[in-house]
# Entry
Amino acid sequence: MFTLYQRDDCHLCDLALAVLAEARVRGLNSVFIDEDPTLDQRYGARVPVLRDAQGRELDWPFDARAVAAFVAVVPAGGRLA
# Structure
């Protein structure tokens, strides 16, 4: 499971979605931080940010190669599905 933190009307977020599609990321949720003060404080100017289920984050800018490497990392004690 992956989460993309983004804003409404965000050109960079649109680019990030295109990169994620190119990298064929599955299990992607989008979270818009605009209406959540806690998320806005945490991610603010950093968006778009890709986060995995283990809490690792990949900040923009990223390309399909960086995303593929990020999603391929196996958590400690884990294994590839």
Q: What stands out?
A: The longest strand covers residues 2-6.
